[in-house]
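Ligand: calcium ion. Inputs:
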Amino acid sequence: MHNHNLQLLVHKAKIAELTPEIKQDGVSLMKVHRTSNPNYLFIDLEIEENAVAGSFNIDFYKDGKVQWSYKYVLLERTKDADKREGFNNSDIIYLLMPDRFANGDRGNDNMPGMLEKADRNNPDGRHGGDIKGIADHLDYLEQLGVTAIWINPLLENNMPAYSYHGYAITDFYKVDPRFGSNQDYVDLVAKAKSKNIKIIMDMVFNHCGINHWWMKDLPTADWVHQFDKFTRSNYRGEALMDPHASANDKMIMSDGWFDSGMPDLNQKEPLLASYLIQNSIWWIEYAGLSGIRMDTYPYADQDFMNRWISSLYEEYPEFNIVGEAWLQTVPHTAYFQSTTFPNDKKSSKLGSVTDFPLCYAANNALNHKDSWTEGLTGIYMTLSEDFVYSNADSNLIFLDNHDINRFATNIHADWDKWKMGMTFLLTTRGIPMIYYGGELMMEGDKSKGDADLRHDFPGGWKGDVTDAFKGVNMTEKQGKALEFTKKLLKYRNDNPILQTGKLTHFIPQNDTYVYFRHDSTTAYMMVMCKSDKPVSLDLSRFSEILDSFSSMKSFKESTFDSKPEQILVSPMSATIYQFK
Ligand SMILES: [Ca+2]
Ligand SMILES: [Ca+2]
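Predicted complex:
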């Protein structure tokens, strides 16, 4: 590893009374930390270049005698692990909630020692989906055209109820047995890789579940933020960069608990900081990850987050991390990207943020009449603010996710609007993400509770009447939506300029928004038309781009014709034209 230092956390009754020793070539014990809790020792090791893989004993002494011994295993690195490539805008990401995607192993639905039992009739309960369910359906995802999967957290959530979402982690090193084993996860990553699908791990550093093992015996008093009475975060990420913000508001934002069952971790505590950084590096190395999605990014200590990212990039320079920055405006969102690596030449490779402002703009565009600021102009306005981002091309873009209304619901399941939204998502700048079921126009309304956003994927459970994996008993709309999504994803995957080409857009006119992705060899023109009548589009307005090209074809056509002077655009449509 680039960093030769390793810190071990040892938890055992009265362990602090003992003194550890190690006799192993290439491994040096540098320092031992004791805290106010005698049940912990933290041991700093230096692993030298010449250290050989294998096991060695850590002997714990008292009064000149070994009282306890622990066999530690040092593993060989995977070849070229440091050259691991992250995800980028050549990818199409599929977000899925493992408990709700497919139940591949009914034998793990209930597991000894795990408090919550499966109950598919409870919308907020565990439904039994698991890693095998994902592994069994990688073919479906490959054929759909996605190249990366972000899976909601798979780590142990041993909570009494409402833990299916995975965000109340009770062991940072262990996959929840109701999803499978650590080895199952490693095997899933390898199987996905064989299909050129990357796996992005969802991590949570802001908080843990209140049933985390260390909550019963905290390593240090300041391991989690504690208050005289329960203090909830104000969820106002804006307070962090607001020049007029109250210091108390900022503190409550960062240090308040996300929920009563989610204690707020204090990343300023150096021993916890090392624990979390090493945990990420361990998962990347052990499982072979291609990316991390960091939950509730603004809520953690930002100095720590910068250090965390630097540490990961030192080990994996080509890696990528997307931070969930759920904020309403562009500058608030961009703050978390542009400050990640100020003036750093590597900044273009990281600092991927979730683009909520564009998500809201795209949803609103299809429901609001065009005006000076609303409708399609809202998309135009939002993208015109891209100058605030250090690299908007690496923004994660989406129409919906597991926390907000499903897109199909927002547009009242209107087929034309749905096609327009999907076409926009797959052709504008950024890294597109589809939320599972989005390809079937699955609906979900947050006002009915989060469970409505997270329905079981049809076909994931034995006995499901509809099986979308196999195309059995689907509604006409589901079938059409799936076919359209496949075609659109294939088109993006086959045409790299749609992924990385320059975005140039034109001020919306006549309820019509025209934008291009282009380089010197090819241009793609996207026309989103919300007019209720056909619109005649004069191409001379776009001559700054189109003068270099002589022929054109639409998305549906297979051969090029000579470039026309005008195009007749259908009402309520989004069309892609290719020029060469
Ligand atoms: Ca299961
Ligand atoms: Ca926090």
